[in-house]
Amino acid sequence: ECAKRVVRDPQGIRAWVAWRNRCQNQDL
C-alpha cells in the first residue's frame, strides 16, 4: 500500500522520495 499511496499523491515523484525512505523496509 505504500507504493499505491505515492501514486495517489499529487506531488508524485517528490512525495515518492519521502515515502521511499519510510517504506524502505517494505516490498514495493
UniProtKB/TrEMBL annotation:
Signal peptide: none
InterPro entries xref list: Glyco_hydro_22, Lysozyme-like_dom_sf
PROSITE patterns, per database record: GLYCOSYL_HYDROL_F22_2
Bilayer-crossing regions: none
Full protein name: C-type lysozyme
